[in-house]
Amino acid sequence: MSLWSSTLGVNSHGFTAKKNPNLNSFFTPELSKSYIHIPCASPICKTRTRDLFVPASCELNNKPCHMAVSYADASSIEGTLAYENFVIGSSIRPGFLFGCMDSGFSSNSDEDSKATGLMGMNRGSLSFVSQMGFPKFSYCISGFDSSGVLLLGDTRFSWLKTLNYTPLIQISDPLPYFDRVAYTVQLEGIKVGTKMLDLPRSAFLPDHTGAGQTMVDLGTQFTFLMGPVYNALRNEFLQQTREVLRVFEDPNFVFQGAMDLCYQVDESPGTSFSNLPRVSLMFQGAEMSVSGERLLYRVPEMNKGSDSVYCFTFGNSDLLGIEAFVIGYHHQQNVWMEFDLVKSRVGFAEIRCDLAGQRLEMGL
């Protein structure tokens, strides 16, 4: 989907609405002279939504075109499709398709409560980049509450490291479990420290149904791996950290429904995760390393005695019912991500995203 905006209307609680929302952060269609809702009878409703997992639904032809979008971490949003003028810089794009969201569910409500909408950047015909026609875009996600970067177009900066590129994978034939609008890359292996997991290459390849693709996704917080690969990673990480981390022993606790490896951590001064073995995701032609604080995530408002509970930031996609590998945004933090749609490739390099933002503000 292109853009989703929290909308005030009959049902205005919204996907990202706060308990005491700032009404200025909501879009109110009644106040816009250029807003046009798309009815069910429109060809747009019937044809342009075909690349969604759940096509648009309608009650009557004169009713608004209703849509629902779900993400790999089980978050979802619902709303109606509409036209509106979209302004970026000094340019105006009339008749821009977007979604007016009126309800939804989030697996990470604390973070999502800070937002007022979603921008779809995938390869579908309704996405923001597809409608705007950008050949390339880049983003850099900062950790915690620091500002990040989104650039639309080419990126050439002297302070940016050389990017490592991996090809985007596309399958033209429709397969039941292959998401054709996702940014799909080929994961080829995983290392923990210096040890490569003993897994066949076939463990990372999509099968004849499309199950097993590897998606780079901004709509999902953490990284999820197919069962056999996840179990191999889990066992090796446990083995290499048994002397430095204490496992949280509760067989009934699974964070966010898919993350079952958690630890008790004494957060006394000087506590650091810098001594943990890095996990390296090996792609075709490139490598993405996850280290330090990005390996563990503190479970909000959960403690074991005086200790905090942290969970390993890789989860089992089988527990979510997802037939795919998903690289979530938590592991993209402080990594410059470039999507070159002309050359069909993804490039990345580690960088402090907050500093990158400051350099851009200074015009460097």
Automatic annotation (TrEMBL):
SUPFAM superfamilies, sorted: Acid proteases
Q: Write the signal peptide boundaries.
A: none
Q: What are the UniProt keywords, alphabetically?
A: Aspartyl protease, Glycoprotein, Hydrolase, Protease
Which residue ranges does the record assign to the Peptidase A1 domain? 1-349
A GO term, aspect molecular function: aspartic-type endopeptidase activity
Q: What InterPro entries is this protein classified in? A: Aspartic_peptidase_A1 (IPR001461), Pepsin-like_plant (IPR034161), PEPTIDASE_A1 (IPR033121), Peptidase_aspartic_dom_sf (IPR021109), TAXi_C (IPR032799), TAXi_N (IPR032861)
Any one Pfam family here would be TAXi_C
Q: GO biological process annotations for this chain's record?
A: proteolysis
Its family?
A: Belongs to the peptidase A1 family.
PANTHER family linked to this entry: ASPARTYL PROTEASE-RELATED (PTHR47965), EUKARYOTIC ASPARTYL PROTEASE FAMILY PROTEIN (PTHR47965:SF49)
- Which named protein is this? Peptidase A1 domain-containing protein
The species this protein was found in: Gossypium barbadense (Sea Island cotton)
